[in-house]
Design goal:
The complex is a heterodimer of chains A (533) and B (835). Chain A has 533 residues and is an all-alpha fold. Chain A has 22 helices and three strands. Chain A has helices spanning 26-48, 58-71, 86-99, 109-126, 132-135, 137-149, 151-157, 162-180, 183-187, 191-212, 216-240, 250-265, 273-288, 303-310, 312-337, 344-365, 373-399, 410-452, 469-472, 481-486, 488-496, 513-516, and strands at 465-467, 505-509, 526-530. A three-stranded mixed beta sheet of chain A has the order 1-2-3. Chain A is globular. Chain B has 37 helices and eight strands. In chain B, α1 packs across α2 (34-54), α9 packs antiparallel against α25 (602-628) and α18 (447-460) crosses α24. Chain B is globular and about 90 Å long. Residues 215-240 and 553-562 of chain B have low confidence and may be disordered. The chains are: A mainly alpha (533), B mainly alpha (835). The A-B interface holds A 78, 80, 82, 251, 272, 275-276, 278-287, 290, 466-478, 495, 533 and B 52, 56-59, 61-64, 66-67, 78, 176, 695-696, 698-700, 789, 791-792, 830-835.
Chain lengths: 533, 835
């Protein structure tokens, strides 16, 4: 993330000493605002459209089922993989408690379960604008656009697990850190600057606190975040003449973050399972380095193929990163030859990017699955792309015409970007279709159960619903979270109707995943019959 | 080997973090508590995890332990940033005391790796109470919530102090080793911890003594202490320049060896007898066991009544990870904290109080027997922290006592609500005074060192008559109170029952004596009074010296007394605490004993003598080391004698270790405690592994009820942590007392019914047995499974043999239940329906 010496100070964290507000004609500001709104709209549409259409899968349902149970005063199920994101559990419990979480329509359970990652994902789209004065409007726009449209980030934001939350909050923390070292604002006189810094500190504390309880992916991003914090503090210290201590009241920040984390994970101190989830998440993260992840859904394709197909932007970013690093290295050698010395901040930034990418690669290769590797790998590449293309957008916005040389490339660039996004989204959709196969099995079952049990509300004449061990969560076997979630209401009513005279509807597991994926066809995972178990 | 390295690194990590995190609490110690830091780290990690789990904020799982370690790291970082000068001082002190640091690290590594190697040659968990300890470790590893579910009594929480096992489980979770390996690694680690703490304390005591005698620069002295140069009795030899570290290091090593490696003189006596008879001592099966039963009491009817005379090395050799073994490093840590308290003038600051409270509370949760001794150590240390008169000493002691009295119950509240029931009371020791010769056999290796230490202290400051009178009165009063308390208990229901049984036993033994006459005859005729008189006299000496230390004011008893009491060698005052308390622990079971399920003083002697071994061992090592370095032939002779008897106490360790290991060395070395079972009962171990992998932690896996000390019984529950309806019955009775009968009512019958496929008992009427249709039998099995919430049923050789399960019964079980797993000789059935 760097700007070249002598270049107009518009982008790059490292050349902060020279950076300043982009010369701001009103028109340019209006264009930037329009761009921001357009990106927010696009990001929002991609995240919220049809959010509740797909049933929660096994990886998502555990947390939602637990939160729903807590919100309804039912004993939470004992799951093989307990909820790992305290933040998600806490927010879901609050959401279900306030709305019921069972209704049809836009506020159905699936939608509510996925609301927090989607909403935070949208906030992540807006986060780069927080530091536009530091990195430039162009770079902020590019970064925001990438976060809004990248299929990986969209998919993360549409899943009810902690990875999307951790990704969005990581972006927020980085944005706060960069914005907090924004030279012009820090030097601005008066209450406004003070309020800005105080507010920023609260936002940073909130983001840090929420990130701390986001789940296993928190630990994936912890290393890069520490690197960024180190770099930013050095950068800030270099400007203030004190190279050791950043101008932040760290204990106060951490205290605030701790309180916020506790409140979020415990749904306002109403439950402690969310707090416990922090240790579960850390345990899961540690285990991911040594153990294979349980395959809730079998992998459709080898991981590498999937990544290349679904993340063309990453591939492009990787190429750009290599080119920029080579260029940076050449310049550094040239600077040394001319005895001017290398720019230490740029070297540090390059080192940071290298370490970051190495860490991301390690995460992607670990046996327990990539987890938050997508976040770790994509963010520096996004930063590189934003840094490289930001000045171009700045010039475009400043020119107010489409006749300049740079602007002639705009349609092609936009078209290329959209094509890449579309390609990634298409590839990802193929994977989604496979998930939907499992979905349909569950949907059919739920529909059948509902149809057969319609008369249960009659005066004692209906079926009781009996879930056999695998799916019910008895102490003998681990329950199936997806089914438990899907039948949560029926299960509750079934318990009430247990004394019914007619033979119960018995739901049990079929022979497992082997049956499900035979010859690439999704078959039923569940058996439904009437009679004794 | 991989596990050994990971375990070692984990202990190092928490140890060094603790050293920084708790540096302010231990800053007055010359070595800054380096020796105790590993124990402190392990304890801080385990206790924080236990508290977090009990209050529901973390779960006992790998992530929970990692989170606690991160918290410890954050605390260390915060402390280092908040007090950079203190951190710099810590680093400087560790650099200056690098000899102690290196020696401590070497000792820990040697003890840990060395004992791990011994365990690798003899790793099996297959005798005495080893399965029970495995059960508690495994339960602590697989049950993430509080209270810990009892694998040997499904549906109920563990009613035993199990934090020590929780500490091992925490490390095992952190480094990802299974419980059967953690069992052996934990034991090796605990030996390392014990050696480290004792070394550190011995080093600190010797260093202070040397430096106060003028052997070191003022800059190296611990901060905050008034400097009083005095020359103790005999005088110390001058410092030897660059080798000045050698004396304290040697004293530290001597402390560690005395406590952890030396043993009683039972084996020496056997050698002596054999020598006199020109034969070899017995080396038969488990000959080394006899040292732990060096003598026996005689019950009121003259029957043999077992007394346990374990010492630390025997416990390690036996290989049980029992509470008394697991608590000993923590008791030594409390001793270190007590010494730090003495160095602080007896003032327990608000900052230091939490650590002292946490350490004592931990002892309650690890081994409740140790709590009184730990509290007494800290209170006495506060009283003797500095002079100034009786009132200030009492005030300091009262303040510490109050802090502990308030803090320990608060910290242990979850255990108070769910843990073991309190003992019934104390009984007077009417019939079994220990003969003086027997006591010498038990503590002979330490006795000369203790006498030398007391002589050194008395030489420094001869006890006054007033002090002797006061001490005598105090000890007599304390003894009288204890005996009166015991006599009072005889009036209660339980005590009266005990007395009645004693009367019956006396009567049935014949003769015309009643209980009182028998008691008098035993005490007078067998020399028990000599033991009490001798130990009491030594305790009186300690008390008299303590009186001087706490009461005398400068000028009141002369200049020397004033110096000694006001600011003299705190090491000497602390040794006084160790010796006095150690002697008190020896004396106490001569007067009273805890009324437990056995009704004898077996456990009281065992537990109190065990603690006394630690305290008297440290005293003896200090006395011996001081005498070695003192001028005068008399001290040198005393030191030689002391070393000789200590050497005699060291005879046992190598001989017994080689013998035990040789008897078990037909298997390849491994740390897997189930290795023996893999060879002898492969089906059972396969079942264990299957249950671990395929069942949730709370699933009830029924087995045949177990009998105590039968390792193969209830083993699946012990090794998997999955509860069974009835485990080792004898131990459950010990833990739960009379309530146990109510808790298991109906379970035996249910298991019998299930394993017999719903058939009636053999003795039932034939027509009833014939009339039982298959349907009725199936229903009976299903009902019993549901009634006792049994999720899985294990059918092995033991069950078949005990219940006479037939092929037809098994066929019926297969219809009612689902056959989930099969291995040679073992079948695991699963209940079919869910809720």
């Amino acid at each position: 993330v760097s700007g070249a010496p002598g270049r107009r100070p518009s982008s790059g964290l490292a050349n902060g000493a020279a950076s300043g507000p982009v010369s701001g004609a009103d028109a340019s500001s209006r264009a930037a605002l329009a761009l921001a709104l357009a990106l927010a709209l696009a990001g929002g549409a991609l995240r919220f459209a049809g959010l509740g259409d797909r049933l929660l899968d096994g990886g998502e349902a555990g947390s939602a089922w637990t939160a729903w149970s807590m919100a309804h005063g039912v004993a939470p199920p004992a799951l093989e993989r307990p909820p790992e994101s305290g933040l998600l559990l806490g927010v879901q419990a609050m959401a279900f408690w306030m709305t019921g979480g069972a209704g049809e329509g836009p506020l159905d359970g699936e939608w509510l379960a996925r609301l927090a990652p989607a909403a935070l994902g949208l906030l992540a789209v807006a986060a780069p604008w927080l530091c536009r004065r530091r990195i430039g409007i162009g770079a902020a726009a590019i970064a925001s656009g990438l976060l809004a449209l990248d299929p990986g980030w969209v998919a993360m934001a549409r899943r009810a697990d902690g990875v999307g939350l951790a990704g969005a909050l990581t972006v927020a923390v980085i944005a706060c850190l960069i914005a907090g070292t924004s030279g012009p604002l820090r030097s601005a006189a008066g209450d406004r600057a003070g309020r800005w810094e105080a507010g920023l500190l609260w936002v940073l504390a909130a983001a840090l606190g929420a990130l701390a309880v986001s789940g296993p992916a928190t630990w994936d991003v912890a290393v890069p975040l520490l690197l960024v914090a180190f770099l930013v503090s050095r950068s800030a210290g270099a400007r203030s003449g004190d190279t050791k201590r950043p101008d932040v009241d760290l204990p106060r920040l951490l205290r605030r973050a701790g309180v916020i984390a506790l409140l979020l994970a415990s749904s306002g101190l109403t439950q402690l399972r969310g707090v416990q989830a922090v240790s579960t998440g850390l345990g899961s993260w540690l285990a991911s380095w040594a153990e294979e992840a349980p395959a809730t859904v079998p992998a459709a394709r080898p991981g590498g193929v999937s990544w290349a197909a679904e993340a063309p932007i990453l591939a492009l970013g990787a190429i750009a990163a290599v080119l920029l690093l080579v260029r940076s290295s050449n310049r550094q050698r040239a600077a040394q030859r001319t005895a001017q010395g290398a720019a230490p901040a740029r070297v540090a930034a390059a080192g940071l990017a290298g370490l970051w990418l190495a860490w991301g690669t390690l995460l992607a290769l670990r046996p327990g699955g990539p987890g938050g590797a997508w976040i770790v790998l994509s963010l520096p590449l996004f930063a590189v792309i934003a840094s490289a293309c930001g000045p171009w957008v700045d010039r475009l916005l400043a020119s107010r015409t489409l006749g300049s040389r740079g602007a002639r490339w705009a349609p092609a660039a936009v078209a290329t970007g959209l094509a890449l996004v579309a390609a990634g989204a298409t590839a990802r959709a193929a994977g989604e279709r496979e998930r939907l196969g499992a979905d349909s099995s569950l949907r059919l079952l739920v529909a059948d159960v509902a149809a057969l049990a319609l008369d249960r509300s009659g005066a004692g004449a209906g079926h009781a619903l009996l879930l056999e061990g695998d799916v019910a969560g008895s102490r003998a076997r681990w329950p199936d979270p997806a089914l438990g979630w899907a039948l949560r209401e029926l299960g509750r009513e079934g318990a009430r109707a247990a004394g019914a005279e007619r033979a119960p509807l018995v739901v049990s597991s079929a022979d497992g995943l082997a049956t499900l994926w035979r010859d690439g066809e999704a078959l039923g995972r569940y058996r439904l019959r009437e009679g004794s178990p | 080997m991989d596990g050994v390295i990971r375990w070692y690194l984990a202990v190092q990590l928490v140890g060094w973090l603790s050293l920084v995190a708790f540096a302010p609490d231990l800053r007055r110690l010359p070595s800054r508590g380096h020796g105790a830091s590993k124990t402190l780290g392990v304890l801080a990690t385990g206790l924080a995890l236990w508290l977090g789990t009990a209050w529901g904020v973390v779960r006992t799982e790998r992530g929970g332990v990692a989170l606690v370690v991160l918290g410890l790291g954050a605390l260390a970082l915060w402390r280092a940033r908040r007090d950079p000068a203190g951190f710099a001082s810590l680093r400087a002190a560790l650099r200056e005391r690098r000899a102690a640091v290196v020696a401590g690290e070497v000792l820990f590594a040697v003890a840990f790796v060395g004992w791990a190697a011994v365990r690798a040659l003899d790793p099996a968990i297959e005798h005495s109470e080893q399965p029970m300890d495995l059960m508690l470790i495994q339960a602590s590893m697989v049950d993430p919530d509080y209270p810990l579910l009892d694998p040997w009594l499904s549906g109920h929480a563990v009613a035993y102090y199990a934090l020590g096992h929780g500490l091992i489980a925490a490390l095992a979770l952190l480094v990802a080793v299974p419980s059967e390996v953690a069992y052996n690694l934990g034991q090796a680690c605990w030996l390392g911890l014990l050696v480290s703490v004792c070394f550190g304390l011995g080093y600190d005591l010797a260093t202070l003594r040397r430096e106060r005698a003028g052997g070191a620069s003022p800059g190296s002295r611990p901060g905050g202490e008034a400097e009083v140069a005095l020359r103790p009795a005999g005088g110390l030899a001058p410092s030897r320049g660059s080798w000045s570290w050698a004396g304290p290091v040697a004293a530290g090593v001597l402390s560690a060896v005395t406590v952890a490696v030396a043993g009683n003189l039972h084996r020496v006596a056997e050698w002596a007898r054999a020598f006199a008879a020109s034969t070899q001592p017995d080396r038969g099966h488990w000959w080394w066991w006899r040292a732990s039963r060096a003598f026996a009491d005689r019950g009121p009817g003259g029957e043999r009544s077992e007394v346990i005379t374990e010492f630390p090395f025997f416990s390690y050799l036996l290989g049980d990870d029992h509470p008394h073994l697991l608590s000993m490093p923590v008791l030594a840590l409390v001793a270190t904290l007590a010494f730090a308290l003495v160095l602080a003038g007896g003032e327990l600051s608000r900052r230091r109080a939490p650590l002292a409270v946490a350490a004592c509370a931990s002892l309650w949760l690890i081994n409740g027997w140790d709590l009184p001794a730990a509290v007494a150590l800290l209170v006495a240390a506060a009283a003797l922290g500095s002079g100034g008169g009786l009132a200030p000493a009492a005030r300091r002691a009262g303040r510490v006592g109050l802090a502990l009295a308030l803090g320990i119950p608060v910290l242990s509240l979850p255990f108070l609500l769910t843990g073991a029931p309190p003992p019934k009371g104390v009984l007077p020791n009417l019939f079994d005074p220990t003969p003086a010769g027997t006591l010498l056999l038990l503590f002979g290796a330490l006795a000369p060192g203790v006498l030398v230490a007391l002589a050194l202290l008395a030489g420094t400051m001869p006890p006054t008559r007033r002090g002797i009178a006061a001490a005598l009165a105090t000890i007599a009063a304390a003894g009288a109170v204890l005996v009166a308390r015991g006599a009072w208990h005889l009036r209660s229901g339980d005590g009266a029952d005990w007395l009645e049984r004693a009367r019956v036993a006396v009567a049935s033994a014949g003769g015309d004596r009643d209980v009182a006459a028998l008691a008098v005859a035993r005490w007078l005729g067998e020399g028990g009074w000599i033991t009490v008189a001798a130990v009491g006299a030594l305790a009186t000496v300690c008390g008299a010296l303590a009186w001087t230390a706490s009461v005398a004011r400068g000028g009141a008893g002369g200049r020397a007394m004033g110096e000694w009491a006001a600011g003299g060698d705190p090491a000497e005052r602390f040794v006084l605490v160790l010796a006095g308390l150690g002697l008190g622990l020896v004396l106490a079971p001569e007067l009273v004993f805890v009324h437990d399920v056995f009704g004898t003083r077996m456990n009281t002697v065992f537990k109190l003598h065990y603690q006394a071994w630690l305290l008297l061992g440290l005293t003896a090592a200090w006395g011996t080391a001081s005498a070695v370095r003192s001028r005068g032939a008399g001290w040198r002779i005393a030191a030689t004698l002391s070393l000789a008897l200590l050497g005699a106490g060291l005879v046992y360790a190598p001989e017994a270790t080689l013998s035990k290991v040789a008897a078990a060395s037909d298997r390849p070395p491994t740390l897997d405690g189930l290795a023996g079972w893999r060879a002898s009962r492969p089906g059972l171990v396969e079942a264990i592994e299957w249950v671990r992998r395929h069942t949730p932690p709370g699933a009830v896996v029924a087995q045949a009820p177990g009998d105590s000390y039968r390792a193969e019984q209830s083993l699946v529950a012990a090794a998997t942590g999955r509860p069974t309806p009835i485990g080792w019955r004898g131990h459950q009775v010990q833990w739960r007392g009379a309530r146990y009968g109510e808790l298991v009512a109906g379970r035996e019958e249910a298991l019998r019914s299930i394993y017999r496929g719903g058939r009636a008992d053999e003795g039932a009427a034939a027509e009833e047995a014939e009339g039982a249709t298959f349907g009725a039998r199936e229903e009976a099995v299903a009902e019993a499974m549901a009634r006792w919430r049994i999720d899985y049923l294990l059918l092995g050789d033991l069950e078949r043999e005990r219940y006479g399960t037939t092929g037809e019964d098994e066929a019926l079980l297969s219809r009612v239940l689902e056959r989930a797993f099969e291995a040679p000789g073992v079948t695991v059935y699963r209940r079919r329906s869910g809720p």
